[in-house]
Structure formats: structure tokens, C-alpha cells
Here is the input.
Amino acid sequence: MIHLENLTKKYGEFTAVSNLNLTIPKGEIFGFIGPNGAGKTTTIKMMGGIMDPTSGSIDICGINMKDEPERAKKNIGFIPDRPYLYEKLTGMEFLRFIGNLYNVDNKSFTGKAEEKLNMFSLLSWADELIESYSHGMKQRLIMAAALLHDPEVMIVDEPMVGLDPVAVRMVKDLFKHLAGEGMTIFMSTHTLKVAEDVCDRIGVINKGVLIATGTVGELKKKSLLVDADLEDAFIKLTT
Amino acid sequence: MPGFLDDVLILLRPRFLSFKNPLVAANSKKEFYRNLFLGTAGFLFWIGIFIISLRTLKYFYRIEGLGDILVFKLLSMLVLTSFSFLIFSSILTSLSKLYLSRDLELVHSMPVSGNRIFFARWIESTADSSWMVVIYTLPVFVALGVVNKAGLFFYLNTALVLLSLSFIASGISSVLVMAAVFIIPAGRMKSILLFLGFTLFLTLFMVFRMLKPEQLVDPDVFATVVVYLDTLKAPSSPLLPSTWVYDSIKESLSGSLRSSFFHSALSWSFVSVIIFINILIADLIYRRGFSKSQTASSRVFRYKYSDFPFTGFLTGASRAFVVKEIKTFFRDQTQWSQLLLIGALVIIYVFNFSVLPLERAPIKTIYLQNLLAFLNMGLCLFVLTAVAGRFAYPAVSSERDAFWLVKASPVKIKTILWIKFFIYFLPLLILSEILIVATNIILQVDAFMMALSFISVLLIVPGIVSIGIGFGAAYPDFKSENPAQSVTSFGGLLFMMICAGYIMAVIILEAGPVYDIFMASVHQRSMTVLQWLRAVISFSIVIVISILAIILPMRFGEKGLSKVLP
Here is the structure.
């Protein structure tokens, strides 16, 4: 479903991501963790088609991002780490904007939009300007928008930032449910507890290099800290 | 007091460093050359003002008996206008600096008292709101000094009193802003002030224009001018700070040092008074006003969801962007004043042509009408360039932080740029055609000139819009708090210069053949083969340039924007 091959990104002399190879099958939740500046957001931006890699390739649902970026992006629900939106639109108008961009069928739009807004407890705010939303509400609106066109792949950068505990629980359950229905989720996070709770597999990136991948148990083994938690394993692997 | 000043200096340090660092360590050669280009353009503009002022002043002084009066009236008007500009600019800047800037939350969380934060911000605001007014009025004063062969004291004194005027304007503005924000939340206050300010400006401007000031140079009404000049001698109010500054400059020019010093001292003593009053008021209400501005303002309108039915013929991305652009444009109150400005511009533009005294001109009316119609085409397109600079050029920058949505969407950058092109092309074309057709009707030009103007505008408007969108995309500014100001950047300057070059090229290419066709028509004779050939070649080149002006900037913009990261 997601296939990254020798993915590299250089900013001048500095290599942000180096020869990243990954394959994530359909229905898997893949966690991407690493210290600040390790290359997580760069990787996510390349996967979302926001940034071109220096070399290497990205395939989303078998479609190459370089050759057919528009077709590849149609299969992605992208959630960035900071919820910047068009502040002068209402929540519902924003969803209509996204619906039009992703060619969501007009007939089913209203039902779908209301369902998503309801799912993220935003239905009563549907006709309010986004500028009056809190940070967490904007984050929830972006999630609702990312799911509107029923993507096969979801790429999420720091999904839980700004969310209250109830919303965090809801999002975790939602991700598991969506993965159960066959959606592939690639998620970068600093919240190791979330990664531990939700992800089927986790990749650890440090200084642009993928240093370990596997289940939580496999990562612990790799760090030689079998009885420790993911946090200890992470620190051991990255320092 | 040392503690007070130390805190203020610490608070000002980030601003000082963010100004100094890019100068010391330019990130790239490209940035260095960009700054050099902008600096040179600014300097040339300064020199231009100086030369025009010098010539105007010399001309005035040659008018015996009236020269002195006119010069000093001009000086008085300049000081008063600068003071008004400073007040208006300071109100908007201090509102942003004191209540709306993004970094204020961080600053207010620090263990520093409200009046110190206020004072640091006030100094920043004073510098930001006044540097341009001061720098670009200075050449007029320098010219005044040169013409009058003034000594060093005049220049030093002028610089110092202008500085005091900036402090006074900023001080008065911040007192007004603090009091107003205490009553109305800052977020809404900015829109209200902008709207009121522009409405006031437009009303004054329209009233002034409707008074037909051009009649002052009409010999028939010269008696009125003499009466008018008599009123010019009337002194301004001694309570106005601008009067102290004017008096100080005037006295220093005539060599009365003591009197000049007295007026300068008056001005500077008021600076200290206004600073004292500001700190006092800031102590009382600044923090409370800031706290109030943190809460969201209550809604004025409830926006019921509607998807414009008239956009039903569009599909997918086109509809998404058209609806989004229209809605965000009309919901941004700062845009309303711009629309008012354009409305006033159209009225004044057409009005100017309706009052032209063509029948009294020494040249045959038919020549003049057609000559004016031809020149009007260029003028109208320059006006359009200014309007496009305000709307089409910032079209990409107005995506601001939400630009990631554009990049992540399954739509090509090229498509998005073309959608934006059409959003702005249609209204701008209608505006230009209204201007050109209305003024041509007033000028009573013949069918050929009407058709030529209409078609030329039809050909050139897409090029200007394309240059605006393309260069706006190649040099976007997503971080600006006001994307509309992006036209004052390096890319904006390039846009203006290229548009000016393009319009002039078209006018020059068309001038020769138009003259031939017009003369043949007036003398009722046919054109020679050579003249026909010249006409065909010239108009063909115009068509080719116009097509290139549409395609090339869009490609340039697409290439540039593809490299930009959100």
C-alpha cells in the first residue's frame, strides 16, 4: 500500500532523510518515531506530495508519486502537525472545499460531511467561522476533512497535539477501526504511549536514517531492554 | 528607572537582532542582490523626490511677490499632511504592536510589568509607523535648504523636529488605541479603524476633486486665486504640534535661531509629556485591554452554509477555489475599504475626463480627443496594474499558512494558478473596459479609436493579470500578517516594472500605425503599402507579446511555486 525506496532528501549539504526503505501493507498502522530534527516531518511531507525527494521513490497504492502525483494524492488523507486552515470559511464550507478538491460526489456530500463533523463533535460548530475554533477543534476539523473522501492511506503528523483526552481516546479508537476496515495509516508521533497503544509496527528514525523497525516487542529486543517500556527502548536506540 | 530602561532594552533586543542579523549575514548572494536592488530603487525614488522638489521650489521662488507665500504654504501643508499620515499609520501600527502581534502571548507571560512591555512596543511602533514618512519627506526639506542656501542648523533642526513629530503622533495614537481597545476588542477595532479611515480619506479626496482645483490655474478665475492667496497667509492653530514643527523649520530657514529653538523645545517638551501620559495610562489599562483582546469577539453575522449556485457550471478544484476565494474575500473587512477605494477611483477617473476643457484647447478638438483617447489607454492600464498589484499579485500569498492544503491537494500547481488567474481576470477586465469605454464616450472618439482601445485592453489585461499571478507565485510571502502588502516586496517591484514595460511597449508599437490610420481617415485618403505593412507588423508584434505575457509569467510562477515549501 505504501512503498518507499531509497528515499533521500538533502537540503544543500545536509541530509535530512537518507536512503529510507519501507513497505507498509494494507490495513497496518505504522508509527514513525524519532528525536526532534530526525527527519520525520520531512519524510511525511515527501509522502504527502508536498515536498519532492532528492532521490528515491514513493508509491501510494501502487501509484508513483513522482509520475502521477495527483492520482497518488487522491488516495491520501493528509493531516499536518499544525492546523492552519482558511480562517474565513466555516467548518462546513471548508469540508465543501475539500470535497470539491477531491471530487466527492455532490449527492452524498452533505450526509458525509455531517457524519464526519458529528464524529469529531463539531456538528454544532458547522456554521461558525474557523477563526473562532480552538486549536484542538481545528485539528479535529482537519481530521474530518482528511477522511471525507474515504482515502485508502492516511498520513498523519503528530495526530494528538492539541487534543483533549476524550478526543485522543476517540482518535485512537478511530484509527484502529479504520485500519480494521483496510485503511493504511502512517503516523509520526512523539507520544510513545500512543504509538505503543495503536501501532502494529514502529519505525525509529535518527539523523535521517531508519535505525530500527518492528513491533514494540521487537524494538525492545533490539535495544536489549526486554522488560523496559518503549520510552527506554527509544532512548537507548537513539542515543 | 535603570531597571525600567534595562527591561525595555531587553524586550527590544529580539527586534534589533532580527533587523541586524540578515544585514550582517546575508543568507545568499541572491538575497544580497535583492536587497541591493530594493535599496537602489528606494534611493532613486528619494533622489527623484528631491529633484522634483528642487525644481518646484525654484519655480515658485521665481514668482515675484507670491513665491514666498506659496513655498511656506506648501511647507505648512506638507507638515500637516505628514502629521495626519503619521497619526493614521501610528494608530494601525500601535494596534498591531500592542494588541495583535503573534509574539505578544510570549512577551506577556514574562515577568515584566505591563508599562515596560508597553514602552518597548511603543518604541517599535513609532519606528515602524514613521520611518517611511520621515525618510521620504526629508528630500523636500533638503531641497528647501538647498534653494535657500541654509546652514547646518537648518538640516539638524529639521531632522530633530520631524523626529519629535513622529513621537507626538505615535504618542497620541497609542493613547487613543489604548482607550478604544478598552471598550472594543482589538480584533474588531482594526477592521473598524481601517474601514473608517479609508471612508474618511475617500470622502475628503472626492470632495477635493469635485471642487475642481484645476480651476485655480484658469486665468478666467484668477481673481478668485488672489482672494485665495490672501487666505493662505492666515496662520495655523498654535495648539497643533505640526504648527510648532512648521514654525521651527520656517524660523531656522530665515536664520532666527532663538525662535526656531523655542519651537523645537516646545515640540520636544510635548514629546516628554505625551510619553509620561502614555506610561501612566499603560499602567492603568494596557494589561487589562490586552487581556480583553485575548477573548474571541462575539459574532456579527451567522454564516449559514451555502454553495454558490452560480458556480454550478464549474467542477472540482475550480469550484472549490472560486467559492473559497469569493467567500474569504468578502468576509475580510479589510478588503471592503479596498473596494471602496476602487469605486472612488472609477468615479474620479471618469469625472476627470468629463471636466476636460477640450473646446478651449489651442489644438483642433478632433486631434486632441483621439490623442487623449490613445494616452488614456495607457493611463487606464497603469491604473489596472496598480489594482492588479493589490488583488492579483497577493492571490497566492493570501493562502498564507494554509498553503499546505494546496500542496497536498490532488490538483496541479499549474491548474490552481490558472483558476486564480480567471478569478481575478474577469473582474479586472470588466473594470478596465468600463473605464476605457466610459471615458471614450465622454471624449466622443470615433469608432476606430473606440474599437482599438477596447481590443487593446482586452489583449493586455490578461497579460497584466498573468504577470501578477505568476510573479506573486514565484515570490510568495506566506508569513506576512497582511498579504496585500506583498506587492511592496522585491517580486512586487518586478511585477510593477514588467507591467510598465509591457504597457509602454504596446503603446509605442501601436502609436505609429494608429497615427497613420487616423491621418488617412481625417484627410480621407488611403494608406500607402508601407504604412499598411508597418500596421500589420506592429499589431502582430503586439499580439505575440500579449500571448507571451500570458504564458511566460504563469510558467515562471508555476516553476517558482513548485519549489516553495509550506
